Amino acid sequence: MKNNMQKIKLGVFVIVGLAAFFVAIFYVGQNKNLFSSNITLSSIFQNVNGLGVGNNVRFAGIKVGSVSDIVIVDDTSIKVVVDIDHSYQKFLRTDSKMAIGSDGLMGDKLIDLTSGTMSMPNVKDGDLLIAVKPLDIDGIMKKAQNTLVNIEILTKEVSDIAYKANHSDGIIHTLLDDAQANRRLKSILRNTESATAHLSEDLKAAQSSFLLRGYFKKKEKEKEKEEKAKEKKE
């Protein structure tokens, strides 16, 4: 009997140990910090753009937590819940914002947090933060690509007109006198100007987004370094 009891106790101990081991593995897999306390923050988005549970949460470029839950509230609202290490709580304010970004232009999705206004109180566990509408990078890239294609087509048309003007007898006078040709040329120039303006607006929108601000600043610094290197060579 005594031996059987010892075996039962040993079996229970092993089972409990294995269960604790698998629970620890699960939490580590979910990017949880087992050795420090966390606070929970949330926000409501219309679209999470591929964000998943376990994805990183960053503040000022530093990983401060992870996404713990994503819940569909209704057909236009999705609640994203994040766990933040409590040591970063003092940097976050009640007017801090939560945005869905990516690790580089084509990297994994993640949550970016802003610090908010210094005069506002710090966030508390369970606070709901303001959500920033995700920047549609794919849409901007596709629109920019279509704009460049249209500009290429319009440029070819202008080139064709210029070629005919230089290689056809009396074509310059015909072009100047032909109202239809004039209207076509003006339309081409207007479309080119419009396409260029739309492309410029898209690029300005991307530059103004705080999600890509660091990316464009990095490009500016690289450009400055290249210019300084050229000056030294000269």
Give a quick set of tags describing it.
alpha/beta; seven-stranded mixed sheet; 21% strand; 234 residues; single chain; 7 strands
What would you say this structure looks like, in words?
There is one protein chain. The chain has 234 residues and is an alpha/beta fold. The protein has helices at 2-29, 137-167, 171-177, 179-208, 210-233; strands spanning 38-45, 56-59, 62-74, 77-85, 97-102, 109-113, 130-132. It has a seven-stranded mixed β-sheet with strand order 1-4-3-2-6-5-7, with no helix packed on it. The N and C termini lie far apart (93 Å). 15% of the residues are buried.
How big a fraction of the residues is strand? 15-25%
- The overall number of domains is 3
- Broad shape: elongated
Low-confidence stretches: none
Structural class comes to alpha/beta
Order of strands across the biggest sheet?
1-4-3-2-6-5-7
Per DSSP E runs of 2 or more residues, the count of β-strands stands at 7
CA-based gyration radius? 29 Å
The count of helical stretches stands at 5
Order of helices and strands: HEEEEEEEHHHH
Distance between the termini: 93 Å
Task: Calculate the mean pLDDT score and round it.
Answer: 75
Could you describe the largest sheet, including whether it forms a barrel? 7 strands, mixed
Q: What share of the residues lie within helices?
A: 40-55%
